[in-house]
Design brief:
Elements lengths: L3 H20 L2 H17 L1 H8 L5 H11 L5 H12 L6 H15 L2 E8 L5 H15 L2 E8 L7 E5 L2 E4 L2 H13 L2
């Protein structure tokens, strides 16, 4: 399930995608907004400054333009809107949602496989191929080691989670025992 922030970010990302499609400069818009998001990430005090009530919206916009002097009109308007509505801190989430929309447009999906033990490249490729066949999409699979799973795997595809881990089974048994 999406959090409220993700839901709001998705709405901004949808609007941004539609407007960027009309202007024909989606790559430039994404690049500009990503540069601003990276500036916030590299200097957390900057975000605190943007959220400070004593700083007016025009002062915030001036700061944004100093961060990235090459802002196109759409990027500048999006940032201005976020500043006015005091939502600038969700810019990275908006970019994540925008990226997901672009991947969906190109029939791509991201999947994360968490395993208790390392798996071979062949196993990873086999899993990826099975997922692609089942979903009829190009799957970008990343494999992570999580010793807390004890055994088995945990697969995350978007909002969907498939838990085939020993830890998950033990938690399920514990839950059913406690409910008796």
């Amino acid at each position: 399930m999406k959090t409220e922030e993700r839901t709001i970010a998705a709405q901004y990302a949808n609007a941004l995608l539609q407007l960027a499609d009309q202007s024909g400069d989606l790559r430039g818009v994404y690049s500009n907004l990503d540069a601003v998001a990276k500036a916030f990430k590299s200097d957390p005090e900057l975000l605190v400054l943007f959220k400070h009530p004593a700083i007016s919206a025009p002062q915030r916009m001036q700061l944004l333009q100093e961060i990235n002097k090459d802002l196109d009109k759409l990027s500048a308007r999006m940032l201005e809107l976020l500043v006015e509505r005091r939502k600038i801190e969700i810019l990275p989430t908006i970019l994540e949602e925008l990226y997901e929309l672009l991947r969906a447009r190109h029939n791509r999906v991201s999947a994360q496989l968490f395993c208790a033990e390392p798996i071979t490249e062949q196993d990873s490729e086999s899993i990826k191929q099975k997922l692609e066949k089942k979903m009829n999409k190009v799957v970008e699979l990343s494999v992570h080691i999580d010793k807390s799973l004890i055994g088995g795997y945990l697969l995350k595809i978007g909002d969907q989670v498939i838990d085939g881990s020993l830890k998950g089974r033990l938690q399920s048994i514990e839950k059913s025992l406690l409910s008796v």
